[in-house]
Queue: 2 jobs
Job 1
Amino acid sequence: MINKMQKIFFSFLWVIVFLTLFSIQSDAYAKSSDATTSAIVKYDLAYPGMLPGSILYKLKVLRDKISASLISDPQKKIEFYLLQTDKGILATAMLIDKKKFELAKETALKSENNFTLLTYQLGNLPGKINNSLFTKLKKASLKHQEVLKSLLSRVPQKDRKTFQTVIDFSKRNLKTVEDFQKSQDLPQK
């Protein structure tokens, strides 16, 4: 009982440290929206809660699928898919910390697929779209790429190709968002 509580405590502590490290904002880093720069992206990922591999995780996935199907407003669906993507990227990092590389690969692929689903919803948005939505989506995509790149050195060589593929998917999704923004005649940031 105590051993399990210690594990939970240290897991919680590690998540707090991890989130703190990624949320530290420093003026020493240049602001840039270019995906090729090494500046830290100022964007916080959502805590995933239950991780893949947990006994109840399939129920969580079922709940999320039902929730997605019940959302009819394209704006809310975009926000839902972004939240799922953010949770998935952080869950991927947490799984790598636990040395669960196969689950981490699957989670990374599924989370970036959520961002792809999000891009499909852009065309369903009614009227002129607020530029802040595009700014948020681009920052999120850059943060996802940043986290995934940081994980490359922490996974076995044989698994790196999958993570590089997910990074490439993320870059394509970012391009889709930028292209859609251009088609709306909104200024690029």
Job 2
Amino acid sequence: MADNSKQIEQMEEELKVDKNSLLGKWRNKAYDQNADKGWLKRFWDSYFQTEKGIYQQLLADPDAEVRGTVKELAEKYAVPVETMVGFLDGINDSLVEPNPIETMDEDTEVSLAFDREKLYKNMVDAKADWLYELPEWNEIFSAERQKELYLEQKKSGTIVKPKKIGRNDPCPCGSGKKYKHCCGR
């Protein structure tokens, strides 16, 4: 249920973007509810492979800050501008300094300088195992650190309900009385 509310929130946020902007055009195409399901599956499968290739290149040299216009980065990674916009949309929350994705055009200067831990956790949160299991991560984090980050991210979305106090249980205030005769009144 929590996943659905998160998706609805995300979709509502996406609706605030100008439909004629680069980001609006990307989101209209990528999240088109009226599109053929088979076409959408092929679209996303292709995008995920492209995204994986870009991340492999970025993670191979994580200290290098990749900068350029949207168009220049699309050329650098040999992808259409539209695909680069989708990539920028996906990585934006993991960047040291977010890019102005809502208002960018082909000539907007952007940076791909990412926060390593934030990027790894966001990949885990997105359930993108093809990304957080990339072998390039082994050069950035030890296996133990990867496991720690994975568990931190998984636990951050887990709601733990406190144990309910029974009427005849000792009162948690420490008085020594039964809950029903103390704070449970």
